[in-house]
Amino acid sequence: MIDSDDSPSQRLGEYLRQRRQEAALTVAELCHKTRIAPAMLRAMESGDYRALPAHAFARGFYAIYAKALGLNDERIVNWYGQERQEAGDVADGYTGGSAIYEAVKTHRMASAGPPRPLVTLLILIAFLLVMIAVFCWHFEVNPVTVIREKIHLVQERSLSHPQYFRIPNTSKVIHRANEKKKAPLVTLNEAG
After folding, report:
1. Residues 61, 36: contact at Cβ < 8 Å?
2. Cβ–Cβ under 8 Å, residues 172 and 188
């Protein structure tokens, strides 16, 4: 992290340039590492605040720059805010870098909690049941009656046509008998 023996007379841009050079990084390498445009890095190191984007974005750039060099990012952002305010480039009175950290706290407070799949599933099932009930009410359909009629229809069709099935590679035949004869529903006979 950053040492506290840096002189207050030193400008932030000079300090960052010195730290970058001590880390043996070129502007291009730091651009690749931080994904900050080279023009922005040059403006940051020269203290050209008018070339930087909006104050909130610039604070973010300084925090990223500091983290890339292993510096105390909060201190760097605060230092940037003080210098920019001294330069008279800041329209609003608040320039502290702690806004970045407050925004993270606010985001955590406003974000949704962990997903609850069971609750979501129950809500989805309840919604589907309500939709089915509305559908049945609108079309005047009683689902119990419809299901009972379908089952009865399937039973009548299966009982009116006796079926014979031959089991492959054997001489056995499955015979489906009629309920009226009181014979077993399925019998196994030898094919003859």
Report:
1. yes
2. yes
Spatial distance between the Cα atoms of 59 and 52, rounded to a whole number of angstroms: 10
Spatial separation of the C-alpha atoms in residues 23 and 172, rounded to whole Å = 86
Domain 12-110 top-level CATH class: mainly alpha
Please write the tens of the pLDDT for every residue from 63-111. Answer: 999 999 999 989 999 998 888 888 774 444 444 444 444 555 555 555 5
pTM comes to 0.45
Q: How far is CA 191 from CA 161, 166, 167, 178, in A?
A: 20, 8, 10, 20
User: Which residue did the predictor score with more confidence, 98 or 113?
Assistant: 113
**What residue segments make up the domains of the chain, in order of their start?**
12-110, 117-190
**CA 133 to each of CA 94, 121, 141, 144: distance values in angstroms, whole numbers, following the listed order:** 57, 18, 9, 12
Pairing, β 172-176 against β 164-166? antiparallel
